[in-house]
Amino acid sequence: MRLDGKEVLVIGLGMSGMAASQLLVRSGAKVTAVDSANNEPLQSQANQLRAIGVAVELGASIAPPRRFDLAVVSPGVPPANPIFSHIKAEGVPVIGEFELGAQNSFCLNIAITGTNGKTTTTELVERVLTDNQVRTIAAGNIGVPLCSVVEKTRELDFLTLEASSFQLETIKFFRPAIAVLLNITPDHLDRYAHMSEYIAAKGRVFENQQAFDWAIIQSEALTLLRARQINIPSKIATFSARDKTADLYLDRGLLVSRIDGWAGPLLDMDDCSLRGPHNAENLMATLAVGRILRLPLERMVTTLKTYVPAPHRCEEVADIDGVLFVNDSKATNVDAVEKALLSMTRGQEAAPNVWLIAGGKDKGFDFHDIGPVLTQRVKGAFLIGETREKIRAAWSLFTRCTTVDSLTDAVHCAAQAARAGDVVLLSPACSSFDQFRNYQHRGEVFRAAVASLRQKIVKNPSVQTPKSRQNGSVELSM
Fold first, then answer.
1. For the whole model, what pTM was predicted?
2. Which of 19, 126, 144, 385 minimizes the number of CB atoms within 10 Å of its CB?
């Protein structure tokens, strides 16, 4: 992409807009950056960009009144944004920060997308490649903007990229040599008018592939794409925790392959820190990437066995007197909550043993579909945030629900309700932006509340604990 002397508008700052602006300046472009917000972090970023020659306008509601050769949009900026809409109506070419970084990179790409499991699988692929002396780094939606690592790609064999649907909306020529689609379940319905739009955005990861590239796709996601006649021009390998006709499938805890020359058991889930059918699919997708790159199975298995999940993903925070506290703050949609519940240790005689903490900013979900799993696994739910009444209306048919004012209150109420053998699970089914900076901040508040609870018990042994309570329950409203 020739950028020298071009007038480029960057829409939206944050990490992505910052990285895009810096890359554009290094490439000789004349850069203007705008953001509709105007807060202290953005003001600090604006000062850094002005120091390298970027014209920055915060609190902007309209596009600057001049002609631009190109616009680069950050993934958090929706197409309905007035500046975005105006620039497109003016006929200015628009790409995303992700596309800008890809067009200026110097190595092949492995792209990983899906509703859930993207970050875990991206980390797994990066580690498997690195442990086999394949030069790679992880970037994209994982928290490292692609534009920020462009110069490093001269020394790499592959970029391992986590790709969100927002990033894929604005691609033009982005073409991964290997594209992974982990799953598609309802998400971001506050941005997409229909589920079909969300599916189409995910399917774009394949659209520029060639016949010699590879698509690694969950069987159920492939069915959704084909039902909407979304073309996949590359070679296809499938995986599934439920479909035993897939190329890689789950059989009683074993990951099994039926691929010619690679048939048979590959990995025993009991040997891994990752748990649950959803993580089995993350592992299968990783193994499929390794197979395509002809990596030795034994070395891949060794890496996967030693992988420890990142924080805020079914993270065991503490065991207090027989009650396990689990931080799954990353679960920002209903499907992720279902997967978390199914991966929790069962109670005696398979009775419900989970006290679920959920709620947050509404993303447009219908929460009813998870009802049967709630009935099987959840003793009661403590609901927080802007969606608490909406969730209570949906879930009260299946489990006892109580609304509370804060996450800290929810932790303490759940601790009072729990008894030995129970699990207190933060798995919100919503984004965090009503009460927290991000899902990491929400998880940290959960951890702090659990630590405070433990400290109270240490300082005051007379405080009731799960083992000292007789009935281990509190009143919950229906």
1. 0.86
2. 144
